[in-house]
Amino acid sequence: MTSFDAITLEVADLAAAERFYANAFGLGSRLRLRESQEPATGFRGFTLSLTVAQPADVDVLLGGAIDAGATVLKPAAKSMWGYGGVVQAPDGTIWKVATSQKKNTGPATGQIEDVVLLLGATDIVASKQCYLDQGFTVEKSFGRMYVQFAGSGAVKLGLYRRRALAKDAGVPPEGSGSHRIVMIGAQQFVDPDGFAWASGQTAGQLGA
């Protein structure tokens, strides 16, 4: 098990991104922003998910994000797994808000239970081994499709086959250029798909 403490998103317009995330989700120290003009086109290979208690909370958070300027990729709807929807922030980051519940049990609070980063892996087996080598512990694994890691930090981590992740997000799988994301954890490394990790000691150098 290893710690996954925060996510740094690289954005072209720092002031605009700060306004959006303050109004949309209010994730506090779990989300950091830094300005970058690195080119990125199409699907960046990852999604961020916010899990909540009930459908009313999904609607509150998605509504706030849309009001702040997000674009709807998948409207909130019931599914076999619960209730959720997908939006894309003005900076290009894809966010899914979901719950395993299909009925409300009380008034909406908008409280976020978990922040989950799903990385699109070209080769699940190779990526899984990379993270095992870095000290991560597998919590759930479904062959060459999905891996969920155990962790003690503020953010949860999973691997999902890239094409399947893009389909779940409602976007084409093609994309190139920078991922526009850096993960803050216990050590510094780059995984097989080019996702970069920075240690807590070097996070300050990233403008986090």
CATH superfamily membership, which one?
Answer: 2,3-Dihydroxybiphenyl 1,2-Dioxygenase, domain 1
Q: What name does CATH use for the topology?
A: 2,3-Dihydroxybiphenyl 1,2-Dioxygenase, domain 1
Largest sheet: spatial strand order: 5-6-7-4-8-11-10-9
Biggest β-sheet description: 8 strands, mixed
In terms of structural class, how would the helical and strand content be classed?
alpha/beta
Helix % is 10-25%
Number of helices, where a helix is a run of at least 4 consecutive DSSP H or I residues = 4
The CATH class is Alpha Beta
User: In total, how many beta strands?
Assistant: 15
Number of domains: 1
Rg from C-alpha positions? Answer: 16 Å
**How much β-strand is present in the residues?**
35-45%
Overview of this protein structure:
It is globular, with a radius of gyration of 16 Å. It has 208 residues and is α/β, with parallel strands linked by helices. Helix 1 packs antiparallel against helix 2 (55-68). The protein has one domain (4-206): 2,3-Dihydroxybiphenyl 1,2-Dioxygenase, domain 1. Strand 14 and strand 15 (196-199) form a beta hairpin. The chain is 21% helix and 40% strand. The strands form 3 sheets. It has an 8-stranded mixed sheet with strand order 5-6-7-4-8-11-10-9. It has helices at 14-24, 55-68, 124-133, 162-169, and strands at 4-11, 31-35, 40-42, 46-51, 71-79, 82-88, 94-99, 114-121, 137-142, 146-150, 156-161, 175-177, 181-185, 189-190, 196-199. The protein is built from 4 helices and 15 strands.
